[in-house]
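ESCALATION

Customer reports they have been waiting on this structure for their group meeting. Please prioritize. Original submission:
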Amino acid sequence: MKLIFAFLVLLVSFTSWSQTPLSWQKVELEDKILIKVKTGLGNVLERSQFLVEVEAKVNDPGMPNFDDIVKKGAKVSDVKFDDSKGDYIAFSKVGLEIPVVEDFHKDNQQKLKEMYRYGEAFDLFKNLEDVNINVYLSDLLKPGEVEIAKNVVNNLKFPLGEIKPKISFTTIKLEEKKLPPMSAEEAKKKAAEEKAAAEELTLKDILDFISRFGNALGLIFATIILGVSAWLLMKKYFQLKKDMVDAAKKEDMPAEEVVPEVPVEEVPAAEVIPQFVLSSQENFERLRSYLATQPKDAMLMIKNWINSSNDNNQLALRAIAQQLTDEELISLFSGLNDHEREVWSSNLDNYLDDENLALANQHISEEVVRAMIDPDKVKDIELIDLVIGLPLDIACRYVVEKVESGKVYMNLITPQQITKIMNRLPEHQANTVLANSLDFNFVGVEDGFQGFKKDLKDFIAAQKQRPFNSKIMQMVGDFNPLKESLLYTFLAKSGLQEEMLKSAKANIPFDCIVRLPKEIIKDLMQAYPMVKRVQFLSVCDEDMKQDFLKAFADVGSTARQMLDMEFDTLNSDKATVSRLKLQKDLIVKEFVMYTRQYIGAHKDIEQDVEFAVNDWIQTLDPKKPELKIVA
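Update from on-call: job pushed to the front of the queue and completed.
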Protein backbone atom coordinates (compact mmCIF):
# COMPACT_ATOMS: atom_id res chain seq x y z
CA MET A 1 0.00 0.00 0.00
CA LYS A 2 2.82 2.38 0.87
CA LEU A 3 4.55 1.69 -2.44
CA ILE A 4 1.40 2.52 -4.38
CA PHE A 5 1.00 5.74 -2.44
CA ALA A 6 4.62 6.74 -3.06
CA PHE A 7 4.25 6.02 -6.79
CA LEU A 8 1.13 8.19 -7.07
CA VAL A 9 2.84 11.03 -5.23
CA LEU A 10 5.84 10.92 -7.57
CA LEU A 11 3.61 10.77 -10.64
CA VAL A 12 1.63 13.84 -9.58
CA SER A 13 4.85 15.69 -8.70
CA PHE A 14 6.50 15.02 -12.07
CA THR A 15 3.35 16.06 -13.86
CA SER A 16 3.22 19.36 -11.98
CA TRP A 17 6.90 20.10 -12.59
CA SER A 18 6.53 19.54 -16.35
CA GLN A 19 3.62 21.99 -16.59
CA THR A 20 4.04 25.64 -17.66
CA PRO A 21 2.89 28.15 -15.01
CA LEU A 22 -0.73 29.26 -15.41
CA SER A 23 0.21 32.94 -15.96
CA TRP A 24 2.45 32.11 -18.94
CA GLN A 25 -0.22 29.85 -20.38
CA LYS A 26 -2.59 32.79 -20.21
CA VAL A 27 -0.15 35.01 -22.14
CA GLU A 28 0.40 32.36 -24.79
CA LEU A 29 -3.35 31.92 -25.23
CA GLU A 30 -3.85 35.69 -25.66
CA ASP A 31 -1.06 35.85 -28.26
CA LYS A 32 -2.51 32.98 -30.28
CA ILE A 33 -5.99 34.50 -30.28
CA LEU A 34 -4.54 37.94 -31.20
CA ILE A 35 -2.58 36.51 -34.13
CA LYS A 36 -5.58 34.60 -35.39
CA VAL A 37 -7.85 37.68 -35.29
CA LYS A 38 -5.26 39.93 -36.95
CA THR A 39 -4.64 37.37 -39.64
CA GLY A 40 -8.35 37.14 -40.40
CA LEU A 41 -8.88 40.91 -40.48
CA GLY A 42 -5.67 41.42 -42.45
CA ASN A 43 -7.23 39.55 -45.36
CA VAL A 44 -10.00 42.14 -45.76
CA LEU A 45 -8.58 45.36 -44.22
CA GLU A 46 -5.35 47.31 -44.14
CA ARG A 47 -3.15 47.01 -41.04
CA SER A 48 -3.69 50.69 -40.25
CA GLN A 49 -7.49 50.31 -40.23
CA PHE A 50 -7.90 48.13 -37.14
CA LEU A 51 -6.57 47.29 -33.69
CA VAL A 52 -7.17 44.14 -31.63
CA GLU A 53 -7.00 43.55 -27.86
CA VAL A 54 -7.36 40.15 -26.19
CA GLU A 55 -7.83 39.59 -22.46
CA ALA A 56 -8.15 36.14 -20.84
CA LYS A 57 -9.38 35.87 -17.24
CA VAL A 58 -8.46 32.85 -15.10
CA ASN A 59 -9.28 31.73 -11.58
CA ASP A 60 -6.50 31.37 -9.06
CA PRO A 61 -6.75 27.81 -7.58
CA GLY A 62 -4.31 28.65 -4.86
CA MET A 63 -1.74 26.41 -3.27
CA PRO A 64 -2.61 23.01 -1.62
CA ASN A 65 -3.00 23.09 2.15
CA PHE A 66 -1.22 20.22 3.82
CA ASP A 67 -1.04 21.88 7.21
CA ASP A 68 -4.68 21.16 8.05
CA ILE A 69 -4.08 17.42 7.89
CA VAL A 70 -3.31 16.52 11.50
CA LYS A 71 -1.67 13.20 11.94
CA LYS A 72 -3.41 11.25 14.63
CA GLY A 73 -3.88 7.58 15.38
CA ALA A 74 -7.29 5.96 15.76
CA LYS A 75 -8.16 4.86 19.26
CA VAL A 76 -10.65 2.22 20.47
CA SER A 77 -12.08 4.78 22.83
CA ASP A 78 -12.92 7.02 19.90
CA VAL A 79 -15.27 4.38 18.47
CA LYS A 80 -18.76 4.25 19.87
CA PHE A 81 -19.90 0.96 21.14
CA ASP A 82 -22.87 0.84 18.81
CA ASP A 83 -20.63 1.48 15.81
CA SER A 84 -18.22 -1.24 16.61
CA LYS A 85 -18.39 -4.52 14.82
CA GLY A 86 -17.21 -6.52 17.75
CA ASP A 87 -13.91 -7.41 16.19
CA TYR A 88 -11.73 -5.62 18.70
CA ILE A 89 -10.44 -6.53 22.15
CA ALA A 90 -11.05 -4.03 24.84
CA PHE A 91 -7.72 -3.37 26.42
CA SER A 92 -8.82 -0.09 27.83
CA LYS A 93 -9.46 -1.73 31.13
CA VAL A 94 -5.82 -2.31 31.54
CA GLY A 95 -4.75 1.19 30.26
CA LEU A 96 -3.93 0.15 26.66
CA GLU A 97 -5.57 1.32 23.51
CA ILE A 98 -5.25 -0.10 20.04
CA PRO A 99 -6.04 1.74 16.73
CA VAL A 100 -9.13 1.07 14.75
CA VAL A 101 -8.25 -0.74 11.54
CA GLU A 102 -10.66 1.31 9.29
CA ASP A 103 -8.85 4.66 10.01
CA PHE A 104 -5.40 3.45 9.04
CA HIS A 105 -5.53 4.81 5.41
CA LYS A 106 -7.59 8.02 5.76
CA ASP A 107 -4.49 10.26 6.05
CA ASN A 108 -3.04 8.98 2.81
CA GLN A 109 -6.28 9.53 0.94
CA GLN A 110 -6.43 13.15 2.04
CA LYS A 111 -2.88 13.82 0.86
CA LEU A 112 -3.65 12.33 -2.54
CA LYS A 113 -6.65 14.60 -2.87
CA GLU A 114 -4.50 17.68 -2.17
CA MET A 115 -1.89 16.53 -4.64
CA TYR A 116 -4.53 16.04 -7.29
CA ARG A 117 -5.95 19.50 -6.65
CA TYR A 118 -2.41 20.94 -7.01
CA GLY A 119 -1.98 19.19 -10.34
CA GLU A 120 -5.31 20.58 -11.57
CA ALA A 121 -4.02 24.11 -10.82
CA PHE A 122 -1.77 23.91 -13.96
CA ASP A 123 -4.61 23.14 -16.31
CA LEU A 124 -5.51 26.48 -18.05
CA PHE A 125 -8.86 25.35 -19.42
CA LYS A 126 -10.04 24.11 -16.01
CA ASN A 127 -9.23 27.49 -14.51
CA LEU A 128 -10.20 29.72 -17.49
CA GLU A 129 -13.07 31.95 -16.56
CA ASP A 130 -13.63 34.27 -19.54
CA VAL A 131 -12.04 35.62 -22.80
CA ASN A 132 -12.70 39.16 -24.09
CA ILE A 133 -11.79 40.21 -27.65
CA ASN A 134 -12.02 43.95 -28.40
CA VAL A 135 -11.77 44.96 -32.06
CA TYR A 136 -11.26 48.68 -32.91
CA LEU A 137 -12.15 49.65 -36.47
CA SER A 138 -11.33 52.88 -38.32
CA ASP A 139 -14.15 55.41 -38.54
CA LEU A 140 -13.31 55.93 -42.21
CA LEU A 141 -14.43 52.40 -43.16
CA LYS A 142 -17.56 52.03 -45.18
CA PRO A 143 -20.53 50.22 -43.59
CA GLY A 144 -20.08 47.28 -45.92
CA GLU A 145 -16.41 46.95 -44.96
CA VAL A 146 -17.33 47.07 -41.28
CA GLU A 147 -19.91 44.33 -41.74
CA ILE A 148 -17.44 42.10 -43.55
CA ALA A 149 -14.90 42.58 -40.77
CA LYS A 150 -17.47 41.61 -38.10
CA ASN A 151 -18.47 38.48 -40.00
CA VAL A 152 -14.85 37.43 -40.37
CA VAL A 153 -14.15 37.76 -36.64
CA ASN A 154 -17.43 36.18 -35.52
CA ASN A 155 -16.88 33.15 -37.74
CA LEU A 156 -13.43 32.43 -36.39
CA LYS A 157 -13.11 29.23 -34.34
CA PHE A 158 -11.19 29.58 -31.06
CA PRO A 159 -9.94 26.45 -29.20
CA LEU A 160 -11.35 27.47 -25.83
CA GLY A 161 -13.39 24.39 -25.01
CA GLU A 162 -16.66 25.31 -23.36
CA ILE A 163 -15.69 28.96 -22.98
CA LYS A 164 -17.26 31.28 -25.55
CA PRO A 165 -15.24 34.46 -26.20
CA LYS A 166 -16.95 37.80 -25.86
CA ILE A 167 -16.32 39.84 -29.00
CA SER A 168 -16.92 43.60 -29.12
CA PHE A 169 -16.48 46.05 -32.01
CA THR A 170 -15.73 49.75 -31.54
CA THR A 171 -15.20 52.50 -34.14
CA ILE A 172 -12.39 55.00 -33.42
CA LYS A 173 -10.19 57.43 -35.39
CA LEU A 174 -7.16 55.53 -36.62
CA GLU A 175 -6.12 57.41 -39.82
CA GLU A 176 -6.43 60.76 -41.55
CA LYS A 177 -9.08 61.22 -44.10
CA LYS A 178 -7.73 60.61 -47.56
CA LEU A 179 -8.37 63.36 -50.06
CA PRO A 180 -9.46 62.44 -53.54
CA PRO A 181 -6.61 62.39 -56.05
CA MET A 182 -5.92 65.71 -57.72
CA SER A 183 -5.91 66.20 -61.42
CA ALA A 184 -2.67 67.05 -63.24
CA GLU A 185 -3.62 70.73 -63.52
CA GLU A 186 -4.45 70.98 -59.80
CA ALA A 187 -1.19 69.25 -58.85
CA LYS A 188 0.79 71.63 -61.09
CA LYS A 189 -1.01 74.64 -59.66
CA LYS A 190 -0.37 73.53 -56.08
CA ALA A 191 3.35 72.93 -56.79
CA ALA A 192 3.61 76.42 -58.26
CA GLU A 193 1.95 77.94 -55.18
CA GLU A 194 4.27 76.04 -52.82
CA LYS A 195 7.32 77.16 -54.83
CA ALA A 196 6.20 80.78 -54.77
CA ALA A 197 5.57 80.58 -51.04
CA ALA A 198 9.03 79.09 -50.47
CA GLU A 199 10.71 81.78 -52.56
CA GLU A 200 8.86 84.61 -50.92
CA LEU A 201 11.09 86.25 -48.29
CA THR A 202 9.18 87.24 -45.20
CA LEU A 203 10.17 89.14 -42.08
CA LYS A 204 10.06 85.89 -40.15
CA ASP A 205 12.57 84.32 -42.55
CA ILE A 206 14.91 87.28 -42.10
CA LEU A 207 14.67 87.12 -38.32
CA ASP A 208 15.24 83.36 -38.36
CA PHE A 209 18.33 83.78 -40.52
CA ILE A 210 19.73 86.49 -38.26
CA SER A 211 19.04 84.43 -35.15
CA ARG A 212 21.15 81.57 -36.54
CA PHE A 213 24.23 83.76 -36.79
CA GLY A 214 23.40 86.05 -33.91
CA ASN A 215 26.56 85.33 -31.92
CA ALA A 216 28.88 85.64 -34.92
CA LEU A 217 27.27 88.89 -36.11
CA GLY A 218 27.41 90.24 -32.56
CA LEU A 219 31.14 89.53 -32.33
CA ILE A 220 31.77 91.10 -35.75
CA PHE A 221 29.88 94.28 -34.91
CA ALA A 222 31.52 94.46 -31.48
CA THR A 223 34.98 94.11 -33.08
CA ILE A 224 34.18 96.85 -35.60
CA ILE A 225 32.92 99.18 -32.88
CA LEU A 226 35.96 98.52 -30.68
CA GLY A 227 38.32 99.01 -33.63
CA VAL A 228 36.73 102.30 -34.64
CA SER A 229 36.78 103.48 -31.02
CA ALA A 230 40.45 102.57 -30.64
CA TRP A 231 41.29 104.32 -33.91
CA LEU A 232 39.50 107.48 -32.81
CA LEU A 233 41.24 107.43 -29.43
CA MET A 234 44.67 106.94 -31.02
CA LYS A 235 43.98 109.71 -33.50
CA LYS A 236 42.98 112.07 -30.73
CA TYR A 237 46.04 111.05 -28.72
CA PHE A 238 48.44 111.75 -31.58
CA GLN A 239 46.71 115.02 -32.37
CA LEU A 240 46.92 116.10 -28.72
CA LYS A 241 50.60 115.22 -28.58
CA LYS A 242 51.25 117.12 -31.80
CA ASP A 243 49.45 120.16 -30.43
CA MET A 244 51.60 120.01 -27.32
CA VAL A 245 54.79 119.88 -29.42
CA ASP A 246 53.60 122.77 -31.58
CA ALA A 247 52.80 124.79 -28.47
CA ALA A 248 56.24 124.08 -27.09
CA LYS A 249 57.82 125.22 -30.35
CA LYS A 250 55.94 128.49 -30.25
CA GLU A 251 57.13 129.15 -26.73
CA ASP A 252 60.75 128.31 -27.76
CA MET A 253 60.87 125.59 -25.13
CA PRO A 254 61.74 121.90 -25.64
CA ALA A 255 58.73 119.66 -25.39
CA GLU A 256 60.69 116.97 -23.60
CA GLU A 257 64.14 116.60 -22.09
CA VAL A 258 66.16 114.27 -24.33
CA VAL A 259 69.49 112.54 -24.09
CA PRO A 260 72.19 114.79 -25.56
CA GLU A 261 73.17 113.71 -29.04
CA VAL A 262 75.83 114.86 -31.45
CA PRO A 263 74.51 118.15 -32.90
CA VAL A 264 73.58 118.40 -36.52
CA GLU A 265 76.12 120.17 -38.60
CA GLU A 266 74.97 123.56 -39.71
CA VAL A 267 74.93 123.94 -43.46
CA PRO A 268 75.99 127.38 -44.73
CA ALA A 269 73.28 129.30 -46.51
CA ALA A 270 75.38 129.50 -49.64
CA GLU A 271 75.84 125.73 -49.75
CA VAL A 272 73.15 124.26 -51.93
CA ILE A 273 72.81 120.56 -52.55
CA PRO A 274 72.88 119.84 -56.28
CA GLN A 275 69.56 118.59 -57.59
CA PHE A 276 69.81 115.42 -59.66
CA VAL A 277 67.14 113.82 -61.75
CA LEU A 278 66.56 110.64 -59.71
CA SER A 279 63.44 108.66 -59.07
CA SER A 280 61.94 108.60 -55.59
CA GLN A 281 63.04 104.99 -55.07
CA GLU A 282 66.61 105.73 -56.22
CA ASN A 283 66.83 108.55 -53.71
CA PHE A 284 65.74 106.23 -50.91
CA GLU A 285 68.18 103.49 -51.98
CA ARG A 286 71.00 105.87 -51.03
CA LEU A 287 69.85 105.64 -47.42
CA ARG A 288 69.86 101.83 -47.64
CA SER A 289 73.42 101.93 -48.99
CA TYR A 290 74.41 104.36 -46.23
CA LEU A 291 72.89 102.05 -43.57
CA ALA A 292 74.83 99.09 -44.99
CA THR A 293 78.23 100.76 -45.33
CA GLN A 294 78.17 103.29 -42.49
CA PRO A 295 75.57 102.01 -39.99
CA LYS A 296 76.80 104.08 -37.05
CA ASP A 297 76.84 107.33 -39.02
CA ALA A 298 73.44 106.56 -40.51
CA MET A 299 72.06 105.83 -37.04
CA LEU A 300 73.49 109.11 -35.74
CA MET A 301 71.87 111.02 -38.59
CA ILE A 302 68.47 109.44 -37.84
CA LYS A 303 68.87 110.18 -34.10
CA ASN A 304 69.46 113.84 -34.94
CA TRP A 305 66.35 113.84 -37.11
CA ILE A 306 64.30 112.41 -34.24
CA ASN A 307 65.45 115.15 -31.89
CA SER A 308 64.95 117.84 -34.52
CA SER A 309 61.81 119.93 -35.01
CA ASN A 310 62.50 120.42 -38.73
CA ASP A 311 59.46 119.48 -40.81
CA ASN A 312 61.56 117.90 -43.56
CA ASN A 313 63.32 115.68 -41.01
CA GLN A 314 59.98 114.55 -39.55
CA LEU A 315 58.73 113.86 -43.07
CA ALA A 316 61.87 111.81 -43.73
CA LEU A 317 61.24 109.70 -40.60
CA ARG A 318 57.73 108.88 -41.82
CA ALA A 319 59.11 107.91 -45.23
CA ILE A 320 61.72 105.62 -43.63
CA ALA A 321 59.11 103.80 -41.54
CA GLN A 322 56.88 103.47 -44.59
CA GLN A 323 59.52 102.03 -46.97
CA LEU A 324 61.87 99.89 -44.88
CA THR A 325 61.06 96.21 -44.42
CA ASP A 326 60.13 94.78 -41.03
CA GLU A 327 63.60 93.25 -40.59
CA GLU A 328 65.29 96.55 -41.46
CA LEU A 329 63.04 98.47 -39.06
CA ILE A 330 63.75 96.03 -36.23
CA SER A 331 67.49 96.40 -36.81
CA LEU A 332 67.14 100.18 -36.92
CA PHE A 333 64.98 100.37 -33.77
CA SER A 334 67.49 98.25 -31.85
CA GLY A 335 69.95 101.16 -32.05
CA LEU A 336 67.49 103.64 -30.50
CA ASN A 337 66.66 104.17 -26.85
CA ASP A 338 63.11 104.00 -25.50
CA HIS A 339 62.60 107.76 -25.62
CA GLU A 340 63.69 107.98 -29.25
CA ARG A 341 61.40 105.12 -30.24
CA GLU A 342 58.48 106.81 -28.51
CA VAL A 343 59.13 110.18 -30.19
CA TRP A 344 59.46 108.56 -33.61
CA SER A 345 56.30 106.47 -33.13
CA SER A 346 54.30 109.53 -32.05
CA ASN A 347 54.94 111.15 -35.44
CA LEU A 348 53.71 108.19 -37.49
CA ASP A 349 50.11 109.34 -37.62
CA ASN A 350 49.65 109.70 -41.39
CA TYR A 351 50.47 107.62 -44.43
CA LEU A 352 52.44 109.61 -46.99
CA ASP A 353 51.03 109.93 -50.47
CA ASP A 354 53.24 109.68 -53.56
CA GLU A 355 53.93 113.41 -53.71
CA ASN A 356 55.01 113.77 -50.08
CA LEU A 357 56.92 110.48 -50.28
CA ALA A 358 58.93 111.81 -53.24
CA LEU A 359 59.71 115.02 -51.32
CA ALA A 360 60.81 113.03 -48.29
CA ASN A 361 63.06 110.74 -50.35
CA GLN A 362 64.63 113.78 -52.03
CA HIS A 363 65.44 115.24 -48.62
CA ILE A 364 66.85 111.89 -47.42
CA SER A 365 69.11 111.66 -50.50
CA GLU A 366 70.42 115.20 -49.99
CA GLU A 367 71.20 114.56 -46.33
CA VAL A 368 73.06 111.34 -47.14
CA VAL A 369 75.15 113.09 -49.81
CA ARG A 370 75.91 115.94 -47.42
CA ALA A 371 77.02 113.46 -44.74
CA MET A 372 79.30 111.52 -47.10
CA ILE A 373 80.88 113.96 -49.57
CA ASP A 374 81.41 117.65 -50.27
CA PRO A 375 78.34 118.52 -52.39
CA ASP A 376 79.98 121.44 -54.17
CA LYS A 377 82.65 119.23 -55.75
CA VAL A 378 80.69 116.44 -57.45
CA LYS A 379 77.79 116.59 -59.91
CA ASP A 380 77.97 113.00 -61.19
CA ILE A 381 75.20 110.82 -59.71
CA GLU A 382 77.04 107.55 -60.37
CA LEU A 383 80.19 108.82 -58.70
CA ILE A 384 78.23 109.95 -55.65
CA ASP A 385 76.75 106.47 -55.28
CA LEU A 386 80.20 104.88 -55.65
CA VAL A 387 81.63 107.03 -52.86
CA ILE A 388 78.63 106.51 -50.59
CA GLY A 389 78.66 102.71 -51.05
CA LEU A 390 82.43 102.26 -50.52
CA PRO A 391 83.10 100.18 -47.33
CA LEU A 392 85.64 101.61 -44.91
CA ASP A 393 88.20 98.80 -45.22
CA ILE A 394 88.21 99.08 -49.04
CA ALA A 395 88.53 102.87 -48.74
CA CYS A 396 91.58 102.42 -46.50
CA ARG A 397 93.25 100.11 -49.00
CA TYR A 398 92.33 102.45 -51.85
CA VAL A 399 93.98 105.57 -50.39
CA VAL A 400 97.11 103.54 -49.53
CA GLU A 401 97.51 101.63 -52.80
CA LYS A 402 96.17 104.29 -55.20
CA VAL A 403 98.20 107.35 -54.25
CA GLU A 404 97.00 109.74 -56.98
CA SER A 405 93.36 108.66 -56.95
CA GLY A 406 93.48 108.43 -53.17
CA LYS A 407 94.22 112.17 -52.99
CA VAL A 408 91.06 112.87 -54.99
CA TYR A 409 88.98 110.60 -52.80
CA MET A 410 90.25 112.19 -49.57
CA ASN A 411 89.32 115.67 -50.86
CA LEU A 412 85.82 114.58 -51.89
CA ILE A 413 84.66 113.05 -48.64
CA THR A 414 83.58 114.88 -45.47
CA PRO A 415 85.84 115.51 -42.45
CA GLN A 416 84.01 112.80 -40.52
CA GLN A 417 84.90 110.18 -43.16
CA ILE A 418 88.52 111.39 -43.26
CA THR A 419 88.77 110.95 -39.48
CA LYS A 420 87.57 107.34 -39.72
CA ILE A 421 90.18 106.47 -42.35
CA MET A 422 92.97 108.15 -40.36
CA ASN A 423 92.00 106.22 -37.24
CA ARG A 424 92.03 102.94 -39.12
CA LEU A 425 95.48 103.38 -40.76
CA PRO A 426 98.82 102.92 -38.98
CA GLU A 427 100.50 106.19 -37.99
CA HIS A 428 103.15 106.31 -40.73
CA GLN A 429 100.62 105.47 -43.48
CA ALA A 430 98.15 107.98 -42.07
CA ASN A 431 100.83 110.70 -42.26
CA THR A 432 101.65 109.76 -45.86
CA VAL A 433 98.02 109.80 -46.98
CA LEU A 434 97.40 113.09 -45.22
CA ALA A 435 100.45 114.71 -46.81
CA ASN A 436 99.43 113.51 -50.29
CA SER A 437 95.89 114.79 -49.78
CA LEU A 438 97.17 118.27 -48.93
CA ASP A 439 99.07 118.32 -52.23
CA PHE A 440 95.93 118.43 -54.35
CA ASN A 441 93.95 121.17 -56.07
CA PHE A 442 90.57 120.79 -57.76
CA VAL A 443 91.68 123.25 -60.44
CA GLY A 444 93.72 120.46 -61.99
CA VAL A 445 90.64 118.31 -62.54
CA GLU A 446 89.59 118.81 -66.16
CA ASP A 447 87.61 115.66 -67.01
CA GLY A 448 84.89 116.08 -64.40
CA PHE A 449 86.35 113.25 -62.26
CA GLN A 450 85.79 110.71 -65.05
CA GLY A 451 89.28 109.26 -64.71
CA PHE A 452 88.93 109.06 -60.94
CA LYS A 453 85.52 107.39 -61.30
CA LYS A 454 86.92 104.76 -63.69
CA ASP A 455 89.86 104.05 -61.41
CA LEU A 456 87.55 103.70 -58.37
CA LYS A 457 85.18 101.40 -60.23
CA ASP A 458 88.07 99.19 -61.38
CA PHE A 459 89.43 98.98 -57.84
CA ILE A 460 86.04 98.00 -56.41
CA ALA A 461 85.60 95.39 -59.16
CA ALA A 462 89.02 93.95 -58.40
CA GLN A 463 88.10 93.55 -54.74
CA LYS A 464 84.96 91.64 -55.69
CA GLN A 465 86.90 89.30 -58.01
CA ARG A 466 88.41 87.36 -55.12
CA PRO A 467 85.97 84.45 -54.70
CA PHE A 468 88.30 82.49 -52.43
CA ASN A 469 88.07 85.27 -49.84
CA SER A 470 84.33 84.65 -49.47
CA LYS A 471 85.00 80.91 -49.25
CA ILE A 472 87.42 81.54 -46.41
CA MET A 473 84.72 83.48 -44.57
CA GLN A 474 82.40 80.49 -44.91
CA MET A 475 85.10 78.10 -43.67
CA VAL A 476 85.73 79.93 -40.39
CA GLY A 477 82.72 78.56 -38.54
CA ASP A 478 83.58 74.88 -39.15
CA PHE A 479 87.37 75.11 -39.34
CA ASN A 480 89.66 73.39 -36.82
CA PRO A 481 89.87 75.88 -33.90
CA LEU A 482 93.56 75.04 -33.38
CA LYS A 483 94.37 76.16 -36.93
CA GLU A 484 91.84 78.93 -37.59
CA SER A 485 94.41 81.61 -36.73
CA LEU A 486 95.97 80.78 -40.11
CA LEU A 487 92.77 81.86 -41.85
CA TYR A 488 92.57 85.11 -39.93
CA THR A 489 96.22 85.87 -40.67
CA PHE A 490 95.55 85.38 -44.37
CA LEU A 491 92.47 87.62 -44.18
CA ALA A 492 94.53 90.29 -42.44
CA LYS A 493 97.13 90.17 -45.21
CA SER A 494 94.38 90.36 -47.83
CA GLY A 495 93.10 93.56 -46.26
CA LEU A 496 89.63 92.15 -45.48
CA GLN A 497 89.57 93.80 -42.08
CA GLU A 498 85.83 94.46 -42.00
CA GLU A 499 84.91 90.90 -42.99
CA MET A 500 87.45 89.48 -40.56
CA LEU A 501 85.99 91.52 -37.70
CA LYS A 502 82.41 90.44 -38.48
CA SER A 503 83.41 86.80 -38.73
CA ALA A 504 85.35 86.88 -35.45
CA LYS A 505 82.40 88.46 -33.66
CA ALA A 506 80.00 85.84 -35.01
CA ASN A 507 82.40 82.91 -34.36
CA ILE A 508 84.85 83.84 -31.61
CA PRO A 509 88.25 82.26 -32.36
CA PHE A 510 89.77 79.78 -29.92
CA ASP A 511 92.84 81.96 -29.26
CA CYS A 512 90.54 84.86 -28.44
CA ILE A 513 88.52 83.09 -25.72
CA VAL A 514 91.25 83.43 -23.12
CA ARG A 515 91.23 87.22 -23.70
CA LEU A 516 87.65 87.52 -22.42
CA PRO A 517 87.14 89.16 -19.01
CA LYS A 518 87.70 86.85 -16.06
CA GLU A 519 84.08 87.13 -14.96
CA ILE A 520 82.88 85.81 -18.32
CA ILE A 521 85.44 82.99 -18.35
CA LYS A 522 84.46 82.02 -14.81
CA ASP A 523 80.74 81.83 -15.67
CA LEU A 524 81.54 79.99 -18.90
CA MET A 525 83.73 77.34 -17.24
CA GLN A 526 81.30 76.83 -14.36
CA ALA A 527 78.49 76.26 -16.85
CA TYR A 528 80.58 73.75 -18.81
CA PRO A 529 80.12 70.16 -17.50
CA MET A 530 82.83 69.04 -15.06
CA VAL A 531 83.95 65.97 -17.02
CA LYS A 532 84.28 67.89 -20.29
CA ARG A 533 85.94 70.79 -18.45
CA VAL A 534 88.68 68.50 -17.07
CA GLN A 535 89.19 66.85 -20.45
CA PHE A 536 89.51 70.23 -22.21
CA LEU A 537 92.03 71.62 -19.71
CA SER A 538 94.05 68.42 -19.86
CA VAL A 539 94.64 68.76 -23.63
CA CYS A 540 95.47 72.52 -23.50
CA ASP A 541 99.11 73.58 -23.47
CA GLU A 542 100.40 74.53 -20.04
CA ASP A 543 100.32 78.31 -20.56
CA MET A 544 96.72 78.36 -21.77
CA LYS A 545 95.70 75.93 -19.04
CA GLN A 546 97.13 78.22 -16.37
CA ASP A 547 95.42 81.25 -17.95
CA PHE A 548 92.03 79.51 -17.71
CA LEU A 549 92.69 78.28 -14.17
CA LYS A 550 93.62 81.79 -12.97
CA ALA A 551 90.37 83.12 -14.38
CA PHE A 552 87.98 80.80 -12.54
CA ALA A 553 89.95 78.60 -10.07
CA ASP A 554 92.74 80.35 -8.17
CA VAL A 555 95.27 78.35 -6.20
CA GLY A 556 93.88 77.34 -2.79
CA SER A 557 90.22 77.76 -3.75
CA THR A 558 87.70 74.94 -3.40
CA ALA A 559 87.20 74.84 -7.16
CA ARG A 560 90.95 74.45 -7.68
CA GLN A 561 91.18 71.63 -5.14
CA MET A 562 88.35 69.76 -6.85
CA LEU A 563 90.01 70.22 -10.24
CA ASP A 564 93.36 68.99 -8.91
CA MET A 565 91.66 65.85 -7.62
CA GLU A 566 90.07 65.29 -11.02
CA PHE A 567 93.42 65.84 -12.76
CA ASP A 568 95.12 63.31 -10.46
CA THR A 569 92.40 60.74 -11.18
CA LEU A 570 92.66 61.36 -14.91
CA ASN A 571 96.47 61.24 -15.03
CA SER A 572 96.50 57.93 -13.17
CA ASP A 573 94.70 56.36 -16.14
CA LYS A 574 97.35 56.26 -18.87
CA ALA A 575 95.02 54.80 -21.47
CA THR A 576 92.54 57.65 -21.03
CA VAL A 577 95.31 60.26 -21.24
CA SER A 578 96.52 58.75 -24.52
CA ARG A 579 93.02 58.65 -25.91
CA LEU A 580 92.40 62.33 -25.02
CA LYS A 581 95.60 63.38 -26.77
CA LEU A 582 94.44 61.64 -29.93
CA GLN A 583 91.06 63.37 -29.65
CA LYS A 584 92.47 66.81 -28.87
CA ASP A 585 90.98 68.46 -31.97
CA LEU A 586 87.51 67.14 -31.22
CA ILE A 587 87.65 68.14 -27.54
CA VAL A 588 88.82 71.69 -28.33
CA LYS A 589 86.23 72.09 -31.10
CA GLU A 590 83.44 70.95 -28.76
CA PHE A 591 84.51 73.55 -26.18
CA VAL A 592 84.70 76.31 -28.80
CA MET A 593 81.23 75.46 -30.16
CA TYR A 594 79.84 75.52 -26.62
CA THR A 595 81.49 78.92 -26.01
CA ARG A 596 79.95 80.36 -29.18
CA GLN A 597 76.51 79.12 -28.15
CA TYR A 598 77.00 80.58 -24.68
CA ILE A 599 77.94 83.99 -26.10
CA GLY A 600 74.98 83.92 -28.49
CA ALA A 601 72.61 83.23 -25.59
CA HIS A 602 74.02 86.09 -23.44
CA LYS A 603 73.54 89.32 -25.36
CA ASP A 604 74.74 91.39 -22.40
CA ILE A 605 78.38 90.37 -23.00
CA GLU A 606 78.50 91.27 -26.71
CA GLN A 607 80.49 94.45 -26.09
CA ASP A 608 83.08 92.60 -23.99
CA VAL A 609 83.41 90.01 -26.76
CA GLU A 610 83.91 92.77 -29.34
CA PHE A 611 86.70 94.35 -27.27
CA ALA A 612 88.41 90.96 -26.90
CA VAL A 613 88.13 90.31 -30.65
CA ASN A 614 89.60 93.73 -31.51
CA ASP A 615 92.44 93.14 -29.08
CA TRP A 616 93.21 89.74 -30.58
CA ILE A 617 93.05 90.93 -34.21
CA GLN A 618 95.74 93.51 -33.46
CA THR A 619 98.13 90.65 -32.61
CA LEU A 620 97.93 89.29 -36.17
CA ASP A 621 100.61 90.12 -38.76
CA PRO A 622 98.95 92.52 -41.22
CA LYS A 623 101.85 93.16 -43.58
CA LYS A 624 99.88 93.84 -46.75
CA PRO A 625 98.64 96.49 -46.16
CA GLU A 626 99.31 97.47 -42.54
CA LEU A 627 95.86 98.23 -41.16
CA LYS A 628 94.83 98.37 -37.57
CA ILE A 629 91.50 97.85 -35.85
CA VAL A 630 90.29 100.30 -33.27
CA ALA A 631 87.32 99.83 -30.99
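Sent to customer with the following note: The beta strands are 50-58, 128-138, 166-172.
Escalation resolved.
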